[in-house]
Description:
CATH superfamily of the largest domain: HUPs
Strand order of the largest sheet: 1-2-3
CATH architecture of the largest domain: 3-Layer(aba) Sandwich
Distance between the termini: 32 Å
Order of helices and strands: EHEHHEHHHHEHEHHHHH
Number of helices: 13
Oligomer: single chain
Helix content: 55-70%
Amino acid sequence: MRILSGIQPTGSIHIGAYLGAIKQWTDLQGMGECIFFIADLHALTIPQNPGNFQKQVLQTAAELLAAGLNPEKCIIFAQSQVKEHTELAWYLNTITPLGELERMTQFKDKAKQFKQNINAGLLNYPVLQAADILLYQTESVPVGKDQVQHLELTKTIARKFNQKYGETFKVPEALTLDLGAKIMSLSDPEKKMSKSMPETCLFLFDEPEVIKKKIMSAVTDLGKTIKYDPVKKPGVANLLTIFSLFDGKPIKEIENNFKGKGYAELKKQLVNLLVLKLEPFRRKKKELLSREVYLKEILEQGRKRAAIIAQSTMDAVRQKMGLL
């Protein structure tokens, strides 16, 4: 089974991205042929500082390795280094209806958020994403709930290409998590955790004092009972979800452990748990960032391996489309 996913190099990885995606990636490494890429082309839909962008890509590579990705068990590379991504995206653009792109929820949201920069890249983002997936004949894609719509479009594009030009692409299926696929904001548990609010977004590599400040100030709910109820107690439910996923115990067991105790005790123990669990990640990232040559070697090795698959797919695509 070939599995593929990517992450943008736009700031440090937060626990929502880790629990909803990267932790799953590390578990999948031994289950199939895994391809994980740093989506630097996707990141260009919002303004990036050219003088700092390469550093961001290398930092993301360091964080992925620190979080558990093993280059001996998976392929890790930077998207822009495999030129076939953009070539296939153009071909797929020619068969993708404009209306399909305009109805994408993320396009609508980003168009509202970046009113001064509503570029064509924001609209065509899902087509490049489809190219990322189809280029490697991917069978399974780990996705968060907010990406399911994009994957459905990818499947539609794959089927349409296959019908028009003959069987070329595998139609991928989603791999989703029921619990932890969507970690909510510590300040507003009705909204997804986001880097756009760094003061209440818990990053995987935050220092212990920062973790304590963010968790202790996290929004809870009325009442005192520690119970998992995403509708009536979204704040507590979010903290219990985080606790469960880092502790490896069922939420019901955690609820029982906190019976008769208050929110302050839940937060205190969650801080202790996170400081303990995240310390190895912080230490590993610091070591990797001091080895820039090694990081570049890992990405280059990944590029070579990815390019072999990508070139094979594109040879078939060009032939099917009648290109020289």
